[in-house]
Amino acid sequence: MHHPDPTGQVTDVASDAPIQRPLAMSLRQIETFRAIMITGSITEAAKMLFITQPSASRILAAAESRVGFPLFERSKGRLFPTPEARRIYNEVETAYAGVQRVDDLVRAIIEGRSGKLNIVCSPSLGAELVPRAIALFNQRYPDLQIHFEPLTHNNLIPRVLLGKDYLGVSMFGVNSNHLKTEALVDGPMMCISPPGWLAPGGSVRVSDLPPHPWIDYGHDTPLGAIVGDIFGKHRRPSPIVEVRSAISARVLVKECVGVAIVDPFCIDASTFQRIDVHEIRPARKLRVHAVYSQAEPLSHAGRAFIRTLQSVLEDHLSAIDALRR
C-alpha cells in the first residue's frame, strides 16, 4: 500500500522506501525537444542529433502524448513553441548548463587541469628518481599542481595516514590496515666501496667486509634492519660512521671514508665514476611500494603518476644493471 508522507513523496508502506516516479519526459524526448527549440524545425533537429526526420517526429509526438498537452503549434509547415514549451525549455537549458559544467570538470580531470597531487617519498627516491618522474608527468599534465616532499619512513607513513590525498612512495614495508600498497619494482641491495678497496668481480660477501672501515645505519632505521638481515649470523662490523640514509652513506664512500651497503635507487651513472659497485651476497631485494589511504582511492592523476614512476624506476634498474656488467 502506498501513502504520501508529509512532504508529498509517495512511499511504500511495506518497505518504507520512496517510490521512484517515472520521468514525465524521457531524456531522449528532452534532448529532441531541446534540439527543436534551438533549430526551429524537426528536420534541422534531426540533423543536429544525427537521427532521421521521421524518428525525430515520432519522439516529439510521444513526448506530447506523454505530457498530455502540445509543445508546439503547427502552422503552414512551421513549429511555434507553446508558452508551456518555453517554460520547459528554460529549465532544460538550466539543466544542460549543469551538465556542461560536469563535462568541463571531467575533461579538466582527464587533462590534469584540476586538482592537486601530493607526493611524499623515501629520501633515496626523492634525490633523483621521483623528481625525474615528476618532470615527465608534468609534460603531460602541465597545469596540475604538485606538492613534493622527501621524508624518512617514520614521517612518511603518518603523513599519508593523516594527510588528505597523499601518495607515498616507500622502499620499505608498511604495516597498517588503513593504508593500501601497490608494489612497483624490486631492486637488489648493493655494496659500494672506494675504487680498488674490494676484490674485483661482480659480487662481494658480507664476510669480505669486516677488514674495511664500515659505514652503517642506526639499527632502529629500516635500512639498518635490512642490513642486519643481510649479515644474518655473520658478525656485523662496528661502524666508523653511522648514518640515517643511503644518500649519506654514498657520499661518505665517495670520500673514501669506508664501505657501505645501499639501496639501488641512490646510485646513478655518475656513481660508477668514483665508486665501485658490487652485488652483495647473500642477495636481498628491496621492493618499492606506492602507498595511499584505504579510505581514499587514488585520483586519476595519482594513477597516471604511478605508471610514470614505475617506468622511471624500471629504466633506472636496467641502466644500473648494464653499468655493472
UniProtKB/TrEMBL annotation:
This protein's UniProt keywords: DNA-binding, Transcription, Transcription regulation
Xref: InterPro entries: LysR_HTH_N, LysR_subst-bd, WH-like_DNA-bd_sf, WH_DNA-bd_sf
Molecular function as annotated in GO: DNA-binding transcription factor activity; sequence-specific DNA binding
Pfam assignment, any one: HTH_1
Swiss-Prot/TrEMBL GO biological process terms: positive regulation of gene expression
SUPFAM superfamilies, per the entry: Periplasmic binding protein-like II (SSF53850), Winged helix' DNA-binding domain (SSF46785)
Keyword Transcription: yes
Signal peptide from the UniProt entry: none
Keyword Heme: no
Membrane-spanning ranges: none
Residues of the HTH lysR-type domain: 25-82
Family: Belongs to the LysR transcriptional regulatory family.
Full protein name: HTH-type transcriptional activator CmpR
Organism: Pandoraea nosoerga
Lineage: Bacteria, Pseudomonadati, Pseudomonadota, Betaproteobacteria, Burkholderiales
